[in-house]
């Protein structure tokens, strides 16, 4: 530009921005801004259009916009000039007058006073993940020694001829870098302030998966899982065994087997996954009971079932008992009893039954001389005594409803029940050969 009249200039500490004061006599005077990309400088725009500038000083630490100070050309009629200030937000930024020289005098230039001062600022992002870094610039008196701290240790840098020093920091946690003091030719260890916060983010933290309703689910049923950390995604290691809703954590059993359910939380720095093992159980199918179908009073038979893990029970422990674990059935009195085998899992309880006939002991006449229809009990309810009316001698046992024998009486006709608590009781009547004739109930009040 043959019409240009560049006078003062300023270059940023990173060497990528320059301001040139131009006091050309033709139109176009002002402060020209240039930016650099690689090795090429390009004109950006002009500030203070129409105000001829002769000197310029720039504070690059007032981010995000540099603050430009300049002196203007003298007014021809008054030979006075002005000191102006521009916050460089864009090409339309308006300048303000800070001072006007006295009549007949001029400001010959502008520069920053050599006091004891420094600033710290960042020239790239100050928020990143673990492993990242930030570049900080300490800007102050050229040649000054500046001490700064990261909150744990202190460090010292010497500013170059342009009054800057660039440091690269790579903290593993959020850290505040603060100025401590400055030493120049005119001051020694003078306290200064200023700081930059560098924020470091890590991968997200995730709590253990909660399974309030257990870790077993039936085929076709659902199970709700949870995690205290929101925003994650659920997944299944094998959708043929169990699926899981990606958002809600609801697991649905598909087929029997083990499966791993995962919960993953992701942020800009990575992902964290926690897992839990789930067992899917198929609906139960219980095999038929096998074994003898009859047993003598006082003898034992063993029933079995091919389905493991079940429990045995008797419909009438007064006729026969059964060991809940082994299936051993012991005859107590003649009659018929139903033996039940029950298996339970998360899908519910399934049972099968088996009828066992309890017969009299071998060698004993099992023919009842007295039949049940020939026996009566009275009064019922009874208070103090219970009368037994039978055509032959009978033996009587009175039991609690849970099968505990409370009274036994041979050749029973009148039984004293006054010691019994009020309630319902079982009366078992046997003939003279102790063959059970009948089971009855009576109420004591």
What does this protein look like?
This protein is mainly β and 445 residues long. The protein has strands at residues 6-11, 17-22, 30-37, 40-47, 53-59, 67-72, 82-87, 96-100, 118-122, 127-129, 134-140, 145-149, 154-158, 164-169, 175-183, 190-191, 195-201, 216-218, 222-224, 233-236, 242-244, 250-253, 257-267, 270-281, 294-296, 300-302, 311-314, 320-322, 328-331, 335-345, 348-359, 376-378, 385-389, 395-399, 405-409, 414-416, 423-430, 436-444.
Per-chain topology:
Layout (H helix, E strand, L loop, with lengths): L5 E6 L5 E6 L7 E8 L2 E8 L5 E7 L7 E6 L9 E6 L8 E5 L17 E5 L4 E3 L4 E7 L4 E5 L4 E5 L5 E6 L5 E9 L6 E2 L3 E7 L14 E3 L3 E3 L8 E4 L5 E3 L5 E4 L3 E11 L2 E12 L12 E3 L3 E3 L8 E4 L5 E3 L5 E4 L3 E11 L2 E12 L16 E3 L6 E5 L5 E5 L5 E5 L4 E3 L6 E8 L5 E9 L1
Parallel strand pairs: 10-17, 18-24, 25-31
Antiparallel strand pairs: 1-2, 2-3, 3-4, 5-6, 6-7, 7-8, 9-11, 11-14, 12-13, 12-15, 15-16, 15-17, 19-22, 20-23, 21-22, 23-24, 26-29, 27-30, 28-29, 30-31, 32-33, 33-36, 34-35, 34-37, 37-38
Entry keywords:
445 residues, mainly beta, 6-stranded mixed β-sheet, 4-stranded antiparallel β-sheet
């Amino acid at each position: 530009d043959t019409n240009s009249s560049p006078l003062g200039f300023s270059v940023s500490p990173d060497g990528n921005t320059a301001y040139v004061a131009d006091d050309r006599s033709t139109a176009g005077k002002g402060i020209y801004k240039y930016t650099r990309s690689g090795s090429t400088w390009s004109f950006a725009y002009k500030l203070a259009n129409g105000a001829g500038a002769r000197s310029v000083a720039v504070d690059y630490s007032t981010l995000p916009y540099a603050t430009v100070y300049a002196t203007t050309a003298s007014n021809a009629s008054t030979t006075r000039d002005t000191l102006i200030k521009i916050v460089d937000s864009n090409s339309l930024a308006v300048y303000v007058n800070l001072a006007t020289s006295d009549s007949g005098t001029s400001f010959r230039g502008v520069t920053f006073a050599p006091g004891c001062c420094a600033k710290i600022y960042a020239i790239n992002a100050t928020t990143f993940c673990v492993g990242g870094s930030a570049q900080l610039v300490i800007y102050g008196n050229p040649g000054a020694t500046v001490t700064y701290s990261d909150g744990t240790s202190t460090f010292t840098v010497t500013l170059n001829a342009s009054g800057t020093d660039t440091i690269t920091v790579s903290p593993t946690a959020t850290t505040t870098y603060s100025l401590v003091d400055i030493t120049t030719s005119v001051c020694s260890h003078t306290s200064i302030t200023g700081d930059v916060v560098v924020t470091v983010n890590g991968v997200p933290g995730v709590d253990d998966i909660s399974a309030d309703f257990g870790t077993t689910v039936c085929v076709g049923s659902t199970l709700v899982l949870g995690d205290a950390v929101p925003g994650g995604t659920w997944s299944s290691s094998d959708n043929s065994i169990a699926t899981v809703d990606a958002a809600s954590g609801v697991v649905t059993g598909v087929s029997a087997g083990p499966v791993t359910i995962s919960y993953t939380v992701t942020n800009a720095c990575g992902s964290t996954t926690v897992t839990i093992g789930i067992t899917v159980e198929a609906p139960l199918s219980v095999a038929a009971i096998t074994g003898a179908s009859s047993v003598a009073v006082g003898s034992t038979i063993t029933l079995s079932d091919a389905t493991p893990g079940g429990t045995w029970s008797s419909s009438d422990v007064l006729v026969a008992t059964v060991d809940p674990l082994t299936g051993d059935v012991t005859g107590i009195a003649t009659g018929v009893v139903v033996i039940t085998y029950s298996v339970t899992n998360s899908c519910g309880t399934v049972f099968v039954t088996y009828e066992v006939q309890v017969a009299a002991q071998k060698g004993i006449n099992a023919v009842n001389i007295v039949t049940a229809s020939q026996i009566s009990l009275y009064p019922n309810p009874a208070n103090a005594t219970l009368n037994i009316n039978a055509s032959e001698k009978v033996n009587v046992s009175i039991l609690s409803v849970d099968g505990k024998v409370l009274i036994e009486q041979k050749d029973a006709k009148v039984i004293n029940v006054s010691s019994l608590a009020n309630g319902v009781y079982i009366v078992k009547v046997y003939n003279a050969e102790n063959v059970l004739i009948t089971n009855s109930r009576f109420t004591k009040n």
